[in-house]
Amino acid sequence: MPYNWVTCSPPEVRGFVFNLLGGIKEIIKEDFIGFYLHGSLAMGGFNPKSSDIDILVVSNKSLTVKTKRDLAKLLLASSNNPFPLELSVLTIKQLRDWKHPCPFDFHYSEWWRACYEKDLAKGTSHYLNDEIKTDPDLAAHITILNHRGICIEGNPIMEVFPSVPRFDYLSSIMGDFQDCLEGIEEDPIYCTLNLLRVLWYINDDVISSKQEAGNWGIAALPLDVRYTIQKVLMCYESTTIKYDFEKKELLRIRDFIESRILELLR
To answer: Is the pTM of this model over 0.85?
Structure first.
């Protein structure tokens, strides 16, 4: 059964998050403005066996390369021990001068593990440097944070984060939508639920978790795709249930969602 931070988050999840918060504050020191939770743990769909913990950190000014290296060490030691992390650090100026795709100061996910380990081991700066990068996903992360996120410590969300224009949010989620159209056979659980999230938003302006979108799909969509959604949702919610998915059923739901979205966007 997925968990919610406020009502039923297991003690080990809370301990993990607060230990990470303490480590980040120790590194960023007086430039720390806030530590914010978004994603499945904030919205009540967190599965300890499969979900990331999604965090945004805001600092008063850009981090030095040394600070980035210290953060990388902390996150390499923390992520997947036991929960994987996806974390971005943004400055208050980057948020106030809103642009899409949004610039950020530092980012960590497991995708970056090998790159950061290499820089730290060899003393290089190929990935841990002063370069300011942008991330189109931040428009979606910040929108979800504004609607469903949690301030763990620091200034309130509404004082720190901008209201992201609807067009920017739509642009952000449509990028992932295209990836899911192509990847549904390789990752049917994530891709099906994410496609449903996009459809629900475009259909009804609802910002939802993957679990909520799956339940909506079962209730609202035609019978010929509901059985597949039920299997997907049961796999997502359980640590033991596994189903095999036939190619034709995955393509059926993919094509149905894509055609419905194209109709709604016309």
So the answer is: yes
